[in-house]
């Protein structure tokens, strides 16, 4: 949706389409703008996958319980069963364990990030549907 929307927004810009130099310049700026947007998105996704991979790879429920029980967010430890099965993480448990590992600020950053991702997805889908 983002590439489709971005293409539609660029198409609506005022350029003299009879001059090849103007078209070439517009294409260059479109390439730079799209590359920056996609690169930022790529690195954010890379960091999320790397942090989750480091935090959850071969982690057991008991280990997750212990991490949360020994942190300032000890009230959240009860969401992890006390067994040695591999932890199955959903969005909620992922935010909780990040908060337990990296402090309460990480829990709130995760929540704001999820809210922002939902808003961005909603707006992009709506705008792309208009073009």
TrEMBL record:
<dbReference type="GO" id="GO:0005384">
    <property type="term" value="F:manganese ion transmembrane transporter activity"/>
</dbReference>
<comment type="function">
    <text>Macrophage-specific antiporter that fluxes metal ions in either direction against a proton gradient. Localized to late endosomal lysosomal membranes, delivers bivalent cations from the cytosol into these acidic compartments where they may directly affect antimicrobial activity. Involved in iron metabolism and host natural resistance to infection with intracellular parasites.</text>
</comment>
<keyword id="KW-0813">Transport</keyword>
<keyword id="KW-0408">Iron</keyword>
<feature type="transmembrane region" description="Helical">
    <location>
        <begin position="29"/>
        <end position="52"/>
    </location>
</feature>
<keyword id="KW-0410">Iron transport</keyword>
<keyword id="KW-0967">Endosome</keyword>
<dbReference type="InterPro" id="IPR001046">
    <property type="entry name" value="NRAMP_fam"/>
</dbReference>
<feature type="transmembrane region" description="Helical">
    <location>
        <begin position="91"/>
        <end position="117"/>
    </location>
</feature>
<keyword id="KW-0406">Ion transport</keyword>
<dbReference type="GO" id="GO:0005886">
    <property type="term" value="C:plasma membrane"/>
</dbReference>
<dbReference type="GO" id="GO:0015086">
    <property type="term" value="F:cadmium ion transmembrane transporter activity"/>
</dbReference>
<protein>
    <recommendedName>
        <fullName>Natural resistance-associated macrophage protein 1</fullName>
    </recommendedName>
</protein>
<dbReference type="GO" id="GO:0030670">
    <property type="term" value="C:phagocytic vesicle membrane"/>
</dbReference>
<dbReference type="GO" id="GO:0005381">
    <property type="term" value="F:iron ion transmembrane transporter activity"/>
</dbReference>
<dbReference type="Pfam" id="PF01566">
    <property type="entry name" value="Nramp"/>
</dbReference>
<keyword id="KW-0325">Glycoprotein</keyword>
<keyword id="KW-0472">Membrane</keyword>
<dbReference type="GO" id="GO:0051139">
    <property type="term" value="F:metal cation:proton antiporter activity"/>
</dbReference>
<keyword id="KW-1133">Transmembrane helix</keyword>
<keyword id="KW-0812">Transmembrane</keyword>
<dbReference type="GO" id="GO:0031902">
    <property type="term" value="C:late endosome membrane"/>
</dbReference>
<comment type="similarity">
    <text>Belongs to the NRAMP family.</text>
</comment>
<dbReference type="GO" id="GO:0005765">
    <property type="term" value="C:lysosomal membrane"/>
</dbReference>
<keyword id="KW-0458">Lysosome</keyword>
